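Lay summary

Proteins are chains of building blocks that fold into shapes. Our project writes down both the chain and a compact code for its shape. Here are two examples, one after the other.
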Amino acid sequence: MTSEGASGGVDGAVGSARDGAVGGAAATGPVAFIGLGHMGAPMAANLARAGVDVRGFDLSAEAVGHAHEAGVPIAASAAEAVAGARVVITMLPVGRHVLSAYSGSGDGGGDAGLLAVAAPGTLFIECSTIAVDDARRAHDLAVAAGHRSIDAPVSGGVMGAEAATLAFMVGGDDADVAEARPLLEAMGRRVVHCGGPGLGQAAKVCNNMILGVSMIAVSEAFVLGERLGLTHDSLFEVAANASGQCWALTTNCPVPGPVPASPANRDYQPGFASALMAKDLDLAAQAIASTGVHAEAGSLAAEIYKRFAAGDGAMRDFSAIITDIRERSGGVSASPEGPTA
């Protein structure tokens, strides 16, 4: 029951973590936070700083130690964290971990499972990035057990989690989303109610499919520009102010120089790791298959990032896909000043 890694995507929010009770968050009653990894620990810490009675738990002793150092009160078990809690927040790696944690079957759920331990009517807030079908299954399990449930995946990565500037894409009933909002606003800057159960995950999948496809297109354009003799700066100046403008270009530019804050200037240290992009695009591919949508670009992007993340690219920023494109184009190398053969 370990929290997922630096889930990312497009989120331009800026700010700093809140101190003290925020927007009534402290009035919601005890909150169990299950999954204290790279994302979960700072999110739970921000709730604690907002005055919320948080009880955190993770199966990883290392994760628990980091969360405790960050100010998160730790329960001895998931059952202890959930018992008597008004709200249960989960931040776990993949859908099967969420479903097993809810039901108590398989890996990570404990003997009884969170749903069996929780008091009747508990609000479950599922913040992991998982398949839409898994999110709806988790919702159905919670409701069948006498609870309430919303899905609220995040965008913004570890930096957003630490700074309490995450964006939440939320699916669920109006009343449940309204009750969860003060807690979400203590952990983030933007909360978008996308519709009913599972539609928060649907929005996350669609958004990150756009991001993956656009990063591949931007990277291919830069490599093509290098071959044609364009400098990075000249191509950026044109595209950033013309119809090629997009977040992958102007915020996360895959070449060093034009955007000093982009990971390309730090040897592609993530950021948003390619392994996580591959995961999100795989979720998109699953959704494409289940709906029968003819989405060639999204499906191809999933294959490209899966291949890249299977090797050394896994822990590099997703913009490092440009290095793979160069290698497959015959080993073109480039500097910020322009291309070299």
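And here is the second example, written the same way.
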Amino acid sequence: MKPTFKSTYFLLILSLLWVGPVRAGLLSDEEARQGVADLKSQQSVLSRQQQTMDERVTRMETALQGYPDLVMRLDSMSQDLAQLRGRIDSLANQLDTEDKRFHDLYVDLDSRLKAVESALPKPEGADGSASGSPSVGGGKEGASSAGMAESGKSATTVADNGAKSAGQGKEGNPEGASDAKAPSADYDAALSVFNTGNYVKSRKLFEAFVKANPNDDKVPNALYWIGMNQLLLKDYKGARATNQHLYKSYPESPKTPDGLLNLAAAWLGLGEPATAKATWKMIVAEYPGSSAALKAKARLRQH
């Protein structure tokens, strides 16, 4: 049966109503792309700065063997390097958040497009029925019109449900969205405090984050920063315990090799160079492709 003028008009209006949200979704998508590109650029610059700082620290450590008066300068540079790592980690966390937002935008846009497609009238004969079959009285034509109107309502319902599913925890449940973002916000806050040089407060904030979110995927990172705070505060026993926990509980985490470097530094602080040397060897053996392994090799050459 051919679509009536009223049903076609209704579907046209429905399609136009969806054009605005789809265009808005495309604009948001472009903004997200630019945001991710900017964050990646910043992360690349900071990574190069970190590599330069690592090389300078290594040269200073070598020089310390003959010039003990450089200890204070090395300590200052180590703190600067730690804060640079904190900025890189903060950017990486922002990049991860943007990637998730980017994915959500695509899901939302896809659901909206599918809803619009389902609401559009099908071509004649698409359902396999004879397109030229005569109508048997006006009653059937009226029934067809009512059926298409009902189909339009169903499409609208599908579209609403799709938008709600894509935006679940954002539009449909604002409180849920707030809860989902809270752990990431707490992690960022602890990193920001670290970058100001307040290591005591940063350690407490990271410890609170781990306690409140024991299953969060950022827990290994938080443990690394707890150990870094302890190391900078010269709490060598605390740094030893934290980094040992990181290694035993999360051996596959990207932060674990660097945590083992901090563990070796803690052993040195505790006056056990032999154990520190064994830790460097373990890094080289278990994480051969990591940047931490390169640093461990350099430390082994110096000791």
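What can we say about the second shape? Confidence is low (pLDDT under 50) at residues 128-159, 161-167, 169-179.
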